[in-house]
Amino acid sequence: MISSGNLTSTATDRSTVEAFVGAETTTTSHAGRTATVVATGSGETIDITASLTAPVKAEGDVLSISLGANSKTVTEATATQVVRAYVGDGGEPKAEGGGDLNVAAFANTQALADGTGVSAALGVSVGGATSTATVNPTVQAFTEGTTKLGGRDVLLTSRVNVTDASAHIDQSFEGDTVAPAFATVTLGSGALLASVAGGTVDTYNSPIVYTGVGAGGTVTATRDVKINSVVYQRAQSDGLSIAAALGVGVGITRPSATAGGSTTTFFDGELTGSSTATVRGFVEASTETDARAVGVGALSGITDVTSTATTSPTVATSVGGSLTATNRPLPTSCPRPRRRSRRLPSRSPSWAPRRLPPAARPPP
Q1: Which of 223, 303, 317, 355 is the most buried (most CB within 10 A)?
Q2: Number of alpha helices (DSSP H) and beta strands (DSSP E) in the chain
Q3: What is d(CA 188, CA 322) in angstroms, rounded to the nearest whole number?
Q4: First vs last Cα of the chain: how many Å apart?
Q5: CA 63 to chain centre
Q6: DSSP secondary structure letters along 79-95
Q7: DSSP character at residue 146
Q8: In 90-152, at which residue ranges do the beta strands (DSSP E only) sit?
Q9: Residue 311 forms beta bridges with which residues?
Q10: What is the DSSP string of 294-313?
């Protein structure tokens, strides 16, 4: 008698959250028409904010017992949302009573994939599992087309998995703090003749972040202009495979983690009347893979582990257009992304950010 247990578990979020003034993105306003929003009260602000909180979780668990057993688990959690706050063509938001203008896009999103498979047989037992977690949101705060922005402070901000207090947003798994993109596989296989347990674990954390004032945008601020992209991206994979047999036991684990994507922060419009202007892209990125494989057999015990961690985000900050300050110079900064790739035996590693000196702005 042969038993086969197969399970596929998938959770996906591809939602879109938008907040905007003016024409919809990629379109133009009708000739001669503008969308004007004015706050005239003393200290009144204008907030154009798109915010998303959306954890995604998938779990799969298979048990197969027979004379000959075969089990396979496929678990996938995917977060590829779009969060946009923008001033489109013809948009003219102005805080004229001494308040601020805020254009902000915030994404608080995680993906967790947990796959478990157990197979047992008198003859031959084979257990396999794949687990994939993907966090690849698109987060944007920008202007496009012909726009006019005004206020005491004019702020454009994109933020991914970072709180208002600049704290990282992780997630919890079985009492441990794990990365926003986290996947795990636990496999067990046992038989008298031969046993094989093989697991593949993949995580991806590669957001696309876009923050800035486009060509055709005019900004008038009585105090400061700040354009900020703040991103925390961490991918973590954990795999455990155990195979035991009186004959041959083979344990195979293949974890990989990737942190990529891009963060672009820019000013390409016209700035007048501001005391200072800051254009800043800040990225903290890391990857981690934990792999264990055990093969036990009276005749032979075989283990095979391949672990890959890749940290390669792209960060670009640029200033163009026309800028005029009333008092002080206009600084720009583009710190190097914080990158770390680790392959650790521990399932619950410690991790803390470290400070890096800012790098010079790359050439256009």
Answers
A1: 317
A2: 0, 29
A3: 64
A4: 67
A5: 33
A6: E--EEEEEE-TTEEEEE
A7: S
A8: 91-95, 101-121, 124-135, 138-143, 147-151
A9: 259
A10: EEEESSEEEEEE--EEEE--
- H/E element, 76: strand 68-79
Strand partners, 241: 187, 293
Fill in the amino acid letter for 114: D
Contact between 80 and 132 (Cβ < 8 Å): no
Average the pLDDT over 161-190 and give the result.
93
Q: Give me the residue spans of the domains in the chain.
A: 50-343
Burial of 78 from C-beta contacts in 10 A (0-12 / 13-18 / 19+): buried
Q: State yes or no: pLDDT of 126 exceeds 60.
A: yes
Strands 194-205 and 124-135: parallel
> Which token pair is 185?
């596989």
Choose the weakest-confidence range: 123-127, 176-180, 268-272, 315-319.
123-127
User: 359: which DSSP letter?
Assistant: P
CB 120 within 8 A of CB 54: no
3-state DSSP helix/strand/coil percent for the chain, to nearest 5? 0, 70, 30
Residue with the two structure tokens 């004229």: 96
The neighbour count for residue 307, using CB atoms within 10 Å, is 19
Q: Which amino acid is at 170?
A: D
Element (H, E) at 240: strand 224-245
CA distance 46 to 94: 8
The letter for the amino acid at 249 is G
171 vs 63, higher pLDDT: 171
Counting beta carbons within 10 angstroms of the beta carbon of residue 46, is it exposed (0 to 12), middle (13 to 18) or buried (19 or more)? Answer: buried
Number of Cβ within a 10 Å radius of residue 41: 11
Residue type, 208: I
Q: Six-digit token pair at 94?
A: 């102005």
Bridge partners, 132 (sequence order):
76, 202
What are residue 199's DSSP bridge partners?
A: 129, 253
Strand partners, 16: 82
Tallying the residues shown for the chain, one arrives at: 364
Query: Per residue in 182-193, pLDDT tens?
Result: 999 988 777 777
